[in-house]
Amino acid sequence: MKTAVADMLGIEYPILAFSHCRDVVAAVTNAGGFGVLGAVAHTPEQLEIDLTWIDEHVGGKPYGVDLLLPQKYEGADQGGLDRDALRQLLPAEQQAFVDDIMARYQVPQLDDEQREAVSRLGGMNVSPKGYEPLLDVAFDHPIKLIASALGPPPAALIERAHAAGVVVAALAGTKEHALRHQEIGVDIIVAQGTEGGGHTGEVATMVLVPEVVDAVAPTPVLAAGGIGNGRQVAAAMALGAQGIWCGSVWLTTEEAETQPVIKEKYLAARSKDTVRSRSITGKPARMLKTKWTEEWERPDGPGPLGMPLQPLLVSEAQARINRAANTPGSGAQELATYFVGQVVGQMNVSKKAGQVVLDMVEEYADVVLRFAEEAAETSA
Amino acid sequence: MKTAVADMLGIEYPILAFSHCRDVVAAVTNAGGFGVLGAVAHTPEQLEIDLTWIDEHVGGKPYGVDLLLPQKYEGADQGGLDRDALRQLLPAEQQAFVDDIMARYQVPQLDDEQREAVSRLGGMNVSPKGYEPLLDVAFDHPIKLIASALGPPPAALIERAHAAGVVVAALAGTKEHALRHQEIGVDIIVAQGTEGGGHTGEVATMVLVPEVVDAVAPTPVLAAGGIGNGRQVAAAMALGAQGIWCGSVWLTTEEAETQPVIKEKYLAARSKDTVRSRSITGKPARMLKTKWTEEWERPDGPGPLGMPLQPLLVSEAQARINRAANTPGSGAQELATYFVGQVVGQMNVSKKAGQVVLDMVEEYADVVLRFAEEAAETSA
């Protein structure tokens, strides 16, 4: 697994782990992989705390930070709107639809203090006003990589990163996105197939990866989407990737701060139990199929809003659901969902994050040996 | 590539090629792979002609036949209905919708003779009344494999096949389908990911193949969906498959009887230009996104019928479109679509079918060598 990406990042295994949880980031980095902290919903204060904690736990080993830098979102032409300005744009129809869901599923209200706490959370920091303060925090730490999980990194960010010796990665769901990333100077393209969790396109990893590899060569490509074990890592490498990027598989690890009811749903879910839905972020993102995603797909419903209006619309409802979801048999339990890819079907046991890395590497090595034996037989 | 499937079928490369075109079937078999003739729309007379032709061209090398054996279809409880009985079930709303599409896109009518020819065609032989005569023809030829591309093969068919030394394969889009196939005695499971052309489920190949391999072991599994080059074959083998099954990649070969306008669309299409649509067969099948698929997705439209009503509803319209589609700038040209998987994005040059097999094998061998070198470096 001595690939260009492993060299570039100074790591043993080019296995990049996306997680919102600092414990996972540190565990993967310490196991020889590379942890990437998803920070889009962090406040700058919380990000400072988390990165300091990571610095204290990885002993100088490399890690990265991930943000969303979409080109298209409500208010983009004004460089982003503040939360109150955005709230003015929420249509009454969608607000009534959310209220109706909450009422029909009997999801308890928050008290004033809880509601206040929800409104203080970072939300989705997708405009420069939102993410610039996060970048300032990130660049004050010894990050080795900055990634855009949505949209092309702005030129200023690429310059700033390169001046600081920081590698820039960007996710791409189509060949066209990958070429655009390459053109603006992105160092590593993450080709993510539709089977991946979170924001994802329509083309599957098996097709997308070789297509992107061929299009952007010699820029290195990581495969993402559908990768959670060593055979899948080997498949990605066979397709021409220089490593892999995965996010779902960490959600059921012991370190993950996944809500218990969601963790249980993940462990029980089949690979066919996910859906691409705009119901949480406003852009298509893969998550568990639940009553929540079903409600938003109703033909008689108003349909979701765009980004960042939809997250603003549903943030309090999501908080209400998550607070109440641990009550067995509750409507909130039925509604509760979260991002995850189709590999959820193979996530059946909770393990340490470091163990997940080692299991991947071991199974990968088995496949390499199997191919080596085939090569030996063929030449014999 | 000496796998269990290669041994079972007596072939050099476990590369199975699904095609409606006898020339492709023979070419792949002659190149060391294994051709499978898709016969669902054949009349028994036409199948007899095609299989005789194949026998004359493969010099005793093995090939197979593929049918659709769905459990659920209109009239299934009566063992299938004849065409006139089915016609009585076509709702006026959908008939008017089809007429409206034809009118708005100015697709010329057929003359009486052409219309008569369309109604004589085999259509979709998905009930026992339809496929039993085809099986009788197939078993009169030295077929080595019978495959069900949709639904579990009936017990009587499995018995008949095994008594005749014929291997039974069945496509599965979920682990559950694969387990059902295994339980009833299917010899080879074809795990087909959502990226595949034609009837396909929602789970991607990268996730589905290892899941099915683990579930049905030691029954051998072929990977299908998203496979059109040697890196993808190697990825499939890394995932644990014993070979691959592919259909799309033959549609642009020199031997394929693909309509010229469709062939041009395939050669120009990007990987994101396909969609799963029920608009032709009544069950979700991946095909080129065109005005036809768009029309059927209109929220104000009646939506497609089930199988086999939808094919009956649209067969004449499809014939009208296909007859007129070669006229540049015509509505028929805009509407024309056909089944294909996401690998259409990499189908950019028309080649001989045998050459496609050899290119796959060569690129596969390159990947095997790359892994062998990695194994040698690691152990050094």
From TrEMBL, chains A, B:
It comes from the Bacteria. Keywords: Flavoprotein, FMN, Monooxygenase, Oxidoreductase. Gene3D superfamilies: Aldolase class I. One of its GO terms (molecular function) is nitronate monooxygenase activity. InterPro entries: Aldolase_TIM, NMO. This is Nitronate monooxygenase. It comes from Actinomarinicola tropica.
